[in-house]
Amino acid sequence: MKIKDSVVIITGASSGIGAATARAASAAGARVVLAARREDRVRELADQLDRALGVRCDVTDPAQVAALGQATLDAFGRVDVLINNAGQGVQAGVEQLSLDDFRGILELNLVAPLSTMQAVLPVMRLQGSGAIVNVSSGTTFADVPGTGGYVASKIALERLSAVARNELEGTGIVVSTMIPFATSTEFLSSIRAGRADAETMTAGAVFDEPERVAEAILELVESGEPQLDLVPSAYGGTR
Question: Where does this protein have coiled-coil stretches (predicted)?
């Protein structure tokens, strides 16, 4: 899928990887729809970009997801790319992990991407083309204590993506998974629970800039490969 002139929906676009991807896609000639709960941020960023639209959207609310899809069609007439970037972390041992926190993480990191995929797939089928990138996490490469809830949500997203890719073979729609490593974003400050433990665990780590991840996401859209990771080889990745 070529980025230039395509219509790209990006969730979690108010900061970090999502905002960086919006900027990169716009610079590459795409028409960008920025979706996030923080409406002021996505509208401000959209105003800075060419042919961009900012839409308030809580991706855990099916009605708002449907409205996001309709707003995209109303503005640009099609949907070529969906980048499921919205997500949140949680840090707690299996024995201490709150079931409410776990359900919340699953809702945002797993159920919401399925919801947004279901919202755009009918349009993509009519078009005979489309690209979906689901953003996972390098934490899925290891069994680090305290990450069980978060990793479970992201591993499930990776498998969901792989199955969807197989189901959509021959339709012109490609589903891929992006696996970043530690990235300089608001992730740690917005963690659902266990922020202090997460900050301790990542102390001293070398973080990628979100622009590097954005570049990799657009590379994945254009290549259509099943998966791309930015995980160093020392941790089991390809970098």
Answer: none
